[in-house]
Amino acid sequence: MKALCAVDGSKFSMRGVEAFRTLFHQSLREVILVHVIDTSLLESGLKKEGTKPGKTKKILTALEAEGKKILKASEDHATQVFNTKMGKVLVKIRSVLAKGHAAYAIVKEAEKREPHLVVLGSRGFHDIQGYFMGSVSRKVLSHAPCPVFIVKDPIQSPVQIVLAVDGSTASMRATNYLKSWVAPEVGSVHVLSVVPQALRGLGSSARVKPFTKALTATFQKQAQETTARIRSIFSKSKFGVTSEVVAGNPRETILDCLVNHEASLAVLGAKGLTGPERFQMGSVSEWVAAYSGCSILVVRPHITRFVV
Q: Residue 306: inside a domain, yes or no?
């Protein structure tokens, strides 16, 4: 696996590097550390202050020097983490200094360097303002060309993983990535399937009730078959695995499950909603990423040349 990890010198970004050690030690082969000088904020701020072009250039030069120091410190830390904790596994470490809007510069680097995974250390923006205005994490999650791993807290073994599935291609993709990237000894997997209660809106008259009951039973059966199939996949790979089917609102039910199981990591497949679809319906994976207290791996659709 090749991973791109955004770093800014904070403890939050270092959590992303350290999470590799715990979760992906069997599959990680290369790490690209990216530090972004957010020139969009710099230029707007200096323009408001009426700063002269010559002084702007000096400030940018100073930021570049600081950025190189951050990358060097991050590279040293990553080397120490992998050399001391991953035994004989050889991980190639590279660093990149980028410029532009932080989120879009990270996405651009991901498009250019084709990692299997983008990793971000979240600063915990999980309020209403953060969701609608968008933190860097959420913007990268929406636009990255590959899966995105948002690390909110330090991840230690054994890891309790909750995998939310719905039988779709997206959830099967998430299942396959998780099984391929994470070793069974890292932790256990709890497979959750939520049966939406959207049929309540059809009414409860004597004429409609039998129809809704039969439809609900069909959805329940499909969810049970899905969880049983995915549970079998992990069981055959020697993972500790449990499963459950719950009726309710997918967003709320997944968040409740993460709390009840004291999960360190949530894994969801993204269906790739864009534009008006995302705004009107919302993305369950984005919602969970914004409001969950644990780290989250969102397996987005990606360019076909990426290989697991």
A: no
Rounded to two decimals, what is the model's pTM? 0.85
CA–CA distance, 4 with 105 (Å, rounded to integer): 12
Q: Which residues contact 227 (CB under 8 A, 6 or more apart)?
A: 165, 191, 192, 193, 243, 244, 245
Number of domains in the chain: 1
Which residues constitute the domain of residue 179? 2-299
208 inside domain: yes
Give mean pLDDT in consecutive 10-residue pieces for the chain, a chain of 308 residues. Answer: 91 84 87 90 62 72 92 91 60 92 93 94 52 66 92 91 94 94 94 79 56 77 94 96 94 95 95 46 77 92 51
Question: Is 308 inside a domain boundary?
Answer: no
CA distances from 101 to 49, 109, 111, 136, 142 (A): 20, 12, 15, 9, 15
Specify whether the CB–CB gap between 2 and 115 falls below 8 A: yes
Q: Using alpha carbons, select from 41, 23, 49 the residue that is nearest to residue 184.
A: 23
Report the CATH number at residue 247: 3.40.50.12370
CB 119, CB 4: distance < 8 Å: yes
